[in-house]
Specification:
Low-confidence stretches: none
Distance between the termini: 43 Å
Strand content: 5-15%
Largest sheet: 6 strands, parallel
Strand order of the largest sheet: 1-8-5-4-2-3
Length: about 400
């Protein structure tokens, strides 16, 4: 019963909550708006609405709209340069996990020296300490996927080394987050699927982690329950505002799981894939490896009770054994039309699975250390192999 709880983010949650942004005390007078290189936030009017809210708050802003899927080191460094050159005093991330994650990393580099990768504590990073407080962060999420609006984590890819890692410190919690389900009505079906399962895996992994707490367990089981019930509805009808609202809640809860527990090695196993194959959506990669991954955990016999609890949260109230969770997860994937994703469609080379397994273990030992049981290089290679189609 010994644990720490720290989530310092103020969250505005609910339909129409973006319209209240101008009434909040913003953390500065000039924002760097960080968003994607795509057109969704423009075509759906979200960028205009945010800019109008900032104008109402008498806040200046500069736009940096070059963030891609799996945001990169280059984008972070360029965004930080724009923030410095324009004397921005806070960063506003608008969009899904990619721009909000990038906004956190940009906030660090807008005040600290050197290369962002120097601060990475994994792989080729140098574990440099962040000595100057980053710029404050405001997060406005348009997706229900990563929970990044309620946690300090930011995942960035290094194009040169093909590494993809998460990072976060106390200062990278958003100061203010807006979670407006109405902004999520425009998310296409495939990304509704990928993002919804990403939120699910954050909660599943956080529940299985050996550092889980009574608080993280409470958030995780509720998020799993909501996703099991409402993700199929959101996939079936993207305009179902009740489904979008409950998925938004599940997503924010999953971020709270990440703040009070942590991801385990499933994420590390996937990050190797989307670090090498940049066109692979993170959520799709997680779905691809998930059944083999959790089957391996079940095979080890280390989390039987928790696997049963997760099965019950997904809707199988009569679950009695770990395999019931695997069946419930497979059924959810089928209901959400996520059961036919293929690694081969993204050019993933099955002959590199041993290499990828070693990379996952070498680059992210901390994630594997949080697993409820030991997964060897051979285990990870098996997971990749069994997931391939």
């Amino acid at each position: 019963m010994n644990f720490k709880y720290y989530i310092p983010t103020k969250i505005l949650f609910g339909r129409g909550s973006l319209n209240k942004l101008h009434t909040e005390k913003l953390p500065g007078k000039k924002a760097l708006i960080v968003t994607t290189s795509g057109r969704s936030v423009i075509d759906n009017g979200y960028l205009d609405r945010v800019e109008n809210e900032l104008k109402k708050a008498n806040c200046e802003f500069v736009l940096y709209n070059k963030i891609t899927n799996n945001p990169t080191l280059t984008e972070v460094m360029e965004g930080a340069k724009v923030a410095k050159e324009n004397n921005c005093d806070f960063v506003l991330g608008l969009g899904g996990g990619s721009p909000i994650d990038a906004s956190k990393s940009i906030a660090i580099m807008a005040t600290n020296e050197g290369n962002y990768w120097d601060y990475m504590v994994k792989g080729s990073g140098n574990s440099r300490e962040v000595t100057i407080k980053p710029l404050p962060i405001v997060a406005i999420t348009t997706t229900a996927g990563t929970g990044t609006e309620a946690d300090p984590w930011t995942v960035i890819s290094n194009e040169e080394t093909k590494e993809k890692f998460g990072y976060g410190i106390e200062w990278t919690f958003p100061t203010l987050s807006v979670v407006d389900p109405e902004l999520m009505l425009s998310v296409p079906k495939n990304y509704t699927i990928y993002q919804g399962f990403d939120a699910l895996f954050h909660s599943l992994e956080g529940y299985l982690a050996n550092i889980s707490t009574p608080i993280s367990d409470m958030y995780a089981l509720k998020a799993i329950e909501l996703i099991g019930k409402y993700l199929p509805l959101a996939v079936s009808d993207g305009n179902n505002i009740e489904a979008r609202e409950n998925m938004a809640l599940a997503n924010t809860l999953s971020g709270m799981v990440e703040s009070t527990s942590c991801c385990i090695s499933e994420h590390a196993i996937e990050h190797v894939l989307s670090g090498v194959y940049k066109s692979l959506p993170h959520g799709a990669g997680l779905i691809m490896v998930s059944l083999a991954y959790f089957s391996k955990i079940a095979e080890k016999g280390c989390s039987d009770e928790r696997l049963v609890n997760m099965a019950k949260a997904l809707g199988n109230k009569d679950a009695t054994k770990p395999s019931d969770f695997i069946s419930a997860l497979a059924n959810l994937q089928k209901m959400c039309q996520a059961d036919n994703l293929k690694m081969s469609d993204y050019g993933i080379d099955k002959n590199r699975f041993n290499e990828f397994a070693k990379l996952a273990k070498e680059q992210s030992p901390g994630s594997f250390a949080l697993d409820p049981c030991d997964l060897t290089v051979k285990d990870v290679e098996d997971i990749y192999t069994l997931s391939y189609k």
